User: What shape does this take?
Amino acid sequence: MTKKNLLKKGAALASLALGLASFSAASATAQELRFMCSSDGNECATFRELFDKFEAANDGVSIVIEDVPYKSILENLPIQLAAGTGPDLAKVTDLGGLNQYYLDITPHVDAATWETNFGSTQPWFRGGDDDNGIYGMLTQLTVTGPFINKTLFDQAGVAVPGADADWDTWAAAANEVAKATGVTFPMAMDRSGHRIAGPAISYGAKLFADDGSPILVDDAFTAYVEKFVGWHKDGTMAPEVWGASGGTSYQDAKAEFINGDLVYYFSGSWQIQKMAESIGDDFDWQVVGSPCGAGGCSGMPGGAGVVGFEQTEHPELVGKLMDFLAQGDNYNYLTAKTLNIPAHAGVAANPVDYIDASEDAAAALNAFAAQVAGLSPIALKYQGFKHNRAMFNITLQRVSQAIVGELSVEDAMARAKTDLAEALAASQ
Assistant: This one.
């Protein structure tokens, strides 16, 4: 081989080595995060906008959104986490129930700033009173409560009950409207142990003993379940929502409401965007206060939060991303674009300029926000209780069995008590 060819070969080898080194360096710095997300409206798409902004400021970082149905968050995510195959982050609603899998991001954020802005909801993510970790950021504060089809009330000539109306008053009004207008369903409530909790509390249920231990079932809880089951049997409540599914499967009735075939729908503030988008000018709808009873006029607080998981290979980056989302301007944009009630104290201190909110949507947001102050202390405690998921599921399963006739209400409540005792023993 000539000297010239040797020089060419040497240069080629040097170039290849340099290329491999560059590829190796790039591979070493490339970091991908998987984010599991479900949307009530445009939440996942709005996260994508913010993630693009984060990626632009952090070379080599890629965030992949796994956009899944809400049922997958409830049912599949816990299985993946238990198997060690879960994502790096997720948007979750079982805030305390998944605590064992959470990443404590305290070392990666300014803890004082997080306490200032999210201190009131941090306990919802923790494992108990002795846990001071920072695990998540509530991205949407939610409140359960009812939507009504105002156009149907107007067509029927039925007055909308007042702010202090009880469940019997609302049931009578919804039945009168349905009969006058010919729609199929007077009332419906999401098939959820969380959703029925607020009405039971308003009816006088305590859920906890005087010493703070959970009891779930008492006389007032049983009385509300009796009424709720009766409404399913007499046609006041849409039977398909609670009666057509088994186990702890979630089911809502937003399609029936959006289609104009439901007078009164007890769900929550997370449905606002879907209502605004889907109903448009088809009919007038509005949010009304939760029905009242001996325990007040309370819904249930709740929400969805972004959490990181301990199994991630990039804990520092997860913390950095969550801190980015918690910045006031980013959080405000997320709230304004997704039409949610802010849980960030700094953002909530000023009115949110909601983006593209219809008149009905803006009024609904204000109506739900006004209900926050009236939430029962029992409801606030229940939402932050570390075993609330077990209690929600027990409620859901046993009440459903009473609705379909598998058990009497008395037997369903007796089994609920036994279920709770077993669940608490197992947790120990």
